[in-house]
Amino acid sequence: MNTLHKNTFQFDYFSDNFIAFEKDFYKYANINIPLAFLTDDILENMISTKNNYFRVNAKNCKDNLDHYFIFRKNLVKENKSIILFQYVGHKSQTELKNL
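Above: the chain's sequence. Below: its structure in token form.
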């Protein structure tokens, strides 16, 4: 992620919704890399694809299902050049098929 993106796009790290994201991520993901080392890559993926979610594929999940982690983009009131990604929730492959 380039410096401009690091200063513009951020997770809402110090919030209850980010703590909920961490709990959900570790509940489903079977990845040996701590989430703290993945956040820049996750943000870069959502920015480049213009999606408000990212997917952990079935191969990397404890239950062998794809899992989607969904975020809402919000502007920071104090600094309109910063966009915060706030965690909304999680859906599994099965839940998406039932929509």
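The longest helix spans residues 16-28.
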